[in-house]
Amino acid sequence: MRGRGPLSGRSLTAIDGAIALIAVILVVQMWLLTATLEGVLAGHRSLAVPASVISGLLFLGAFSLYLFLMRVDRGVRARAAAEASKEAKPGPGAA
Amino acid sequence: VSLWREEFSVHAAEEHYVARRQFGKFLVLTSLGMFAGNLWILAKSLLERREALPALPIGRVGDLPAPGAKVFRYPRENDACLLLRAADGAYRAFSQKCTHLSCAVIPTEDATRLDCPCHDGAFSGADGRVLQGPPPRPLPRILLEERGGELWAVGIDLGGGDR
């Protein structure tokens, strides 16, 4: 489906890359959550503070990637709409 | 462009595109959920640290035969614990909840070992450490004090050094 509709190869790669990075961040956060819970249950309560800070930073990273994804998406859609309106206008030689 | 294309303007490629955006949104919301989970653990540990555990009497010194075991509740009515008296007369107390899946552990007759019947886990009756099976952590130790011929439970030691 690459190259059809509003999709172009580069923007699709950027979006796929952003999603893959968000997925990696999510896996790290899942591990962090289970490790923190295990540590706190074992009595290492001081772990909870740095773990929350790191998890928050990872969430901010994921959110930034999501904003990047949305920006790419908006740009591609705007370009596609501009091209479509250009094609819809009849040329000077058209009857 | 024909009328039916305008009315039913569904393009497969664009649908895939929207699905990617939605998937990205789902991942980010899940990431927010993980962060919220970490914050919940933090809030719970801070609240528990602030909450002082009560001191409760659990029986008279010498009432329990050596070796022997007795169930008591600490710090809340739903928290079952075991008071053990070893053959040498020393008292020790542990939470009765297995650290694997919270089954009730059962002391052996000589009170040197606590067995979990659910998944064959076992803990030492001397210090609560894991002897065998799937439990990931030692049993929480109940801190005991002798006050005027009575045994009192005064706190819980989870073993991690942070109270």
Briefly characterize the structure.
The complex is a heterodimer of chains A (95) and B (163). Chain A has 95 residues and is mainly alpha-helical.
Describe this protein's structure.
The complex is a heterodimer of chains A (95) and B (163). By secondary structure, chain A is an all-alpha fold. Chain A is 78% helix and 0% strand. In chain A, helix 1 packs antiparallel against helix 2. The longest helix of chain A is centred in the last third of the chain and has 41 residues. Chain A is rod-shaped, with a radius of gyration of 22 Å. The mean pLDDT of chain A is 85. With 163 residues, chain B is an alpha+beta fold. Chain B has a six-stranded antiparallel sheet, with no helix packed on it. A four-stranded antiparallel sheet of chain B has the order 5-6-7-8, with no helix packed on it. The mean pLDDT of chain B is 89. The longest helix of chain B has 39 residues. The chains are: A mainly alpha (95), B alpha+beta (163).
How do the helices and strands line up, and which of them pair or pack?
The complex is a heterodimer of chains A (95) and B (163).
Chain A: H1 9-41, H2 48-88
Helix pairs in contact in A: 1-2
Chain B: H1 3-7, H2 12-50, E1 56-60, E2 68-73, E3 80-85, E4 91-95, E5 106-107, E6 113-116, E7 121-124, E8 130-132, E9 141-147, E10 150-157
Antiparallel strand pairs in B: 1-10, 2-3, 3-4, 4-9, 5-6, 6-7, 7-8, 9-10
State the distance separating the first and last CA atoms of chain B: 73 Å
- Overall pLDDT level of chain A: 85
The percent range for helix content of chain A is over 70%
Which two protein chains have the largest interface (Cβ within 8 Å of the partner's Cβ), and how many residues from each?
A: A-B, 43 and 39 residues
SSE arrangement of chain B, N to C: HHEEEEEEEEEE
Low-confidence stretches of chain B: none
Number of helices of chain B: 2
Give the terminus-to-terminus CA distance of chain A: 34 Å
Main sheet record of chain B: 6 strands, antiparallel
Strand content of chain A: under 5%
Strand content of chain B: 25-35%
The total of helices of chain A stands at 2
Q: Radius of gyration of chain A in whole Å, from Cα?
A: 22 Å
Task: Name the shape of chain A in a single word.
Answer: rod-shaped
